[in-house]
Every structure is written in structure tokens, then in C-alpha cells.
Design a protein that fits this description.
Elements lengths: L6 H6 L17 H5 L4 E5 L2 H14 L9 H9 L8 H9 L7 E5 H6 L1 H11 L6 H10 L2 H6 L6 H4 L26 H15 L11
Parallel strand pairs: 1-2
Helix pairs in contact: 7-8
Length: 210
């Protein structure tokens, strides 16, 4: 990935910096959570996360194009896929959601009411925005715009021969409930059982797009 610079890109940024990460809470630097640095955590329901991961893995040719959701689910639940275990990622940040430097958002809320999410983010970052600003940002951050924006769509990945474009791209559909087009009832029930087993003691409400 010629455009991926990792920590070098972070170190070259000037303050204020924006850093995106998929890392689990327990592997992030402890100093991050002792600092006044503002953090924003975005959670998505596990079934759409699963399908998104499956499609991205096939797009990057890290999985065979004919690998079934059931086969991928087996390795996903065994913590052998990217950013797994998903449940620990969510659990650890949920337990710290009341930290004043952390803003907890859900992907589904952002899809349904992006203007309100923008206001929440602005408030968390102590940035004043007008309603005109909110309207401008809502249009700029719409899924259709982000899918076309080279700054967000990682189109440089598609310029390399190792991707399989039949599986979309870095930004694919972004819909809530797209999992219904890919998961069998049995696979969906397996994910439900995992959620109950690993997160059932927490008061987390998931929006599956029903």
C-alpha cells in the first residue's frame, strides 16, 4: 500500500491532529486515556460489521471470492480476522463511555440523523457551528459524497492490481441492515448468541435496521 504511512503520517501532522484507528482499547497507549485528547468512538451493529468485514476482505483478496459468510463467520468468531474480537472492542470502550474525553456514537444514529451527530461532535470538540455550518457539513459528509471523495474513499487502493472490484471498495454501501442480503437465519442467530454471551450483561442497544 504505497500511500499508507502508519505512524509516520501521524508524527508529521501538525496540531490539532486527527487520527483514525481501529485498534482495541487495551492496545492503545495508556497515555492517550490519561490525556485531555478528545476521543470519538463509533459503534456499528455486529451483523453489518461482519458483512462489511467480509466484503472488504474479499475486495483486498485476503479471502477467496467464493468464501461463504458461514466460513468467514467461523474464523471471525475465532478472532482470526481483522480487528477481532469485535465484542471486546465494543465492551472495553463501552465501559469507558462516560469518560469526559470520549464521545460514544453509533453508526446507525449518524446515518439516521447526521446533522445531530455533527452537533454532538462539535460540542464534544468545543467547536462552535452555525446551522449553516451543519447543513454544509451534512452535505459534505453524506455517504454519496464520501464515496466520491478521494480523501475518504481510499481510491488509491483500487489503483493496485490486488483488489477484486466486484466486491465494491473501501466504501461500499453504508446502509443499515445490509446484512439481511447476505446472512442466513442460522448465521444471524449465531451472531445473536455471541452478543448475548459476551455483552449480555451490558445495557447496549443495537440497531439492526429492522
Amino acid at each position: 500500500m504505497p500511500h499508507f504511512q502508519g505512524l509516520r503520517a501521524v508524527q508529521s501532522q501538525k496540531t490539532p491532529r486527527l487520527i483514525k484507528s481501529h485498534l482495541h482499547y487495551h492496545v492503545l497507549p495508556p497515555a492517550l486515556f490519561k490525556s485531555k485528547c478528545k476521543k470519538i468512538y463509533v459503534m456499528r451493529n455486529p451483523k453489518d460489521v461482519f458483512v462489511s468485514g467480509l466484503m472488504l476482505t474479499k475486495y483486498l483478496k485476503l479471502a477467496a471470492p467464493d468464501k461463504s459468510p458461514e466460513e468467514f463467520l467461523e474464523t471471525w468468531l475465532q478472532d482470526e480476522e481483522y480487528a477481532t474480537p469485535w465484542w471486546r472492542h465494543v465492551r472495553d470502550f463501552w465501559l469507558h463511555r462516560d469518560d469526559p474525553t470520549i464521545l460514544w456514537l453509533t453508526y446507525e444514529h449518524m446515518v439516521k440523523d447526521l446533522p445531530e451527530a455533527i452537533r454532538q461532535i462539535a460540542s464534544h470538540l468545543d467547536v462552535k457551528v452555525t446551522e449553516k455550518d451543519v447543513a454544509t457539513l451534512t452535505e459534505h459528509c453524506s455517504f454519496s459524497n464520501m464515496k466520491q471523495n478521494p480523501s475518504t474513499n481510499a481510491s488509491w487502493i483500487g489503483e493496485n492490481s490486488y483488489v477484486d472490484k466486484q466486491f465494491g471498495g473501501h466504501i461500499r454501501k453504508g446502509r443499515v441492515g445490509n446484512w439481511k442480503e447476505h446472512l442466513s437465519e442460522a448465521a444471524g442467530n449465531t451472531i445473536d448468541a455471541m452478543v448475548e454471551d459476551k455483552l449480555g450483561d451490558l445495557d447496549i442497544q443495537f440497531d439492526y435496521g429492522h
